[in-house]
Amino acid sequence: MSSIIIGTAGHIDHGKTALAGALTGIETDRLAEEKRRGISIELGFAHLDLGGGVAAGFVDVPGHERFVKTMVAGVTGIDIVLLVIAADESIKPQTREHFDICRLLGVRAGIVVLTKRDLVDADILELVKMEAEEFVAGSFLEGAPVIAVSAKTGEGLDELKAAMRKLAVDSPARTSKQPVRLPIDRAFAMKGFGAVVTGTLTAGAIQPEQELELHPLGRRLRVRGVQVHGKPAKAARAGQRTAVNLSGIDHTEIARGMQLAAPGVLRSTQVIDCRLTLLQGVKPLHSRTPVHFHAGTAEVVGTARPLGDGFARIRLREPLLLLPGDRFIVRKFSPVVTIGGGEVIEIDPPRKSRVASLASGDRAAIVMGDAMTRAELLWRLGEPASPGVEIGEWCVKAAWIASVSEALEKTLAQFHREKPLLPGMPREELRTRCKIPAHLFDAVLQRNKKVVAQGELARLATHRVQLQQDEEEARAKIENAFRAGGLAVPGQREVLAACGVDGTRAAILLNTMLREKKLVRVSMELVFHASAIEGLKTLLAAKKGQRFNVGDFKDWTGASRKYAIPLLEFLDRERVTRRDGDDRIVL
């Protein structure tokens, strides 16, 4: 069964509550004061089976001008509005304000309902119908059904139900794939159960034993039970009127305007950039204009600063859970009247506004930097989107990857030109010079087929060390000197000085052979040929498990103490031997 939320809107005493009762059989005025005064003060809720597999949640809002903020909380999240106009009074001030609020909140479908049909004759009814059609012309209700009803006699109710069912079927389904969000419009205690909150589930799904986070408090709470339309349910889904029984909190700690959301996914904010539409006749806002900001079921005082081209930045005194795409209403600080509304574009925007980016309408492009975690994107967008290349938990702009890849290639090319004898550039130096974050560096290297990373070095795939003739000869002399030395090698300074090239090139040749493992560095001063070290390891392998001392080692190898001690310390590091007091053991 599909679910739809239907809300009323209209002037005080135009029959909204009576209409809700006549349609659903449920009296939505529950407070003693409401019954005594005969007006709605708080939001009222009911439910209705429209038939054809469509269940409707019904939100009845107060019509008095003093309770417009309550009305906004009720209209937020509805799919269909019933714009109620009494046939004996026609359009009144709150009819206009409620309708403006519906338009500003982006309500997309509705029906004009002419109530109190039984109090007027056919001519008056036709005149009011014409006035209503003229009133909604050019809006989302242009061409909508205009249905006259009487809550007292029941006339027109079946026609109204049929029209609601048709709109419900045609309305786009809400998604349960987005993170859970339940704006709270009521909190109370139920004997034997504890804290209960109600609201219209705008996204996601809620089920018993689920953990939710209460914003803006940041409290994590467990769901004890769920009801949909007053009945226990295995799960509540987006678009349903939902009651949630919470454990771990008292109902007095919860207030209208708070929200339940998926834990650890979304965050509250106090600054937004938005598209702001002012009502006709409202003077342009100046910088830091104080306003009452209404979003979801919340009302917070804030200041609005125009950014130009219909955009504004709003700073809130208290944090709210907001996401791009959320609709809101702003009301003048004093006197409190509705002056406009709009749509959240970016939450926690950068200090400097970017009107051109805001105007693009591409939410992902607006919020995303060169690289951002998917969790950060989910918080900023409110939906699981990946506007770029995914690298692990990161989402990276393709243009940024192309830019840093080009920087890698240029930096390496310059390095090879300046130091042609070196096989590659140290990776960390390359990363720093190209200003690539450490957590993305390896992935960027792997994606670039023109760059080869080997160990701690990186090079262009086309780079080959080309030795000049004197360098080839020097390299051979260095290697031969260490090979001939066996385990009694000459000092490296002596070898390099005698190789026939300048000291800088000689050092590069030595380091190259060390990286190639043709030579092995045992200490800062001692370098051995790899064949000598391998021969030593083979000799010791035949003595596995044997205990020996320095003297034994000298006897086995013929090495003097000058070489024996550094060699033994090297063998300890290589785990060929293990020191045990003054002795060693062959491992």
Question: What tags apply to this protein structure?
Answer:
alpha+beta; Elongation Factor Tu (Ef-tu), domain 3; 18 helices; about 35% helix; Rossmann fold; six-stranded mixed β-sheet; single chain; 5 domains; eight-stranded antiparallel β-sheet; elongated; about 575 residues
Topology, please?
Elements: E1 2-10, H1 16-24, H2 32-37, E2 44-51, E3 54-60, H3 68-75, E4 80-86, H4 93-104, E5 109-115, H5 122-136, E6 146-148, H6 157-170, E7 181-183, E8 186-190, E9 194-200, E10 205-206, E11 211-215, E12 219-228, E13 231-232, E14 236-237, E15 241-247, E16 259-261, E17 269-278, E18 289-295, E19 298-308, E20 311-320, E21 327-332, E22 338-347, H7 355-360, H8 363-367, E23 371-373, H9 374-381, E24 389-391, E25 394-396, H10 398-418, E26 425-426, H11 427-434, H12 438-447, E27 451-454, E28 457-460, H13 469-485, H14 492-497, H15 503-515, E29 519-521, E30 527-529, H16 530-541, E31 547-548, H17 550-557, H18 561-573, E32 577-580, E33 583-586
Parallel strand pairs: 1-3, 1-4, 4-5, 5-6
Antiparallel strand pairs: 2-3, 7-16, 8-9, 9-15, 10-14, 11-12, 11-16, 12-13, 12-15, 17-20, 17-22, 18-19, 18-21, 19-20, 21-22, 23-25, 24-25, 26-28, 27-28, 29-30, 31-33, 32-33
Helix pairs in contact: 10-11, 13-15
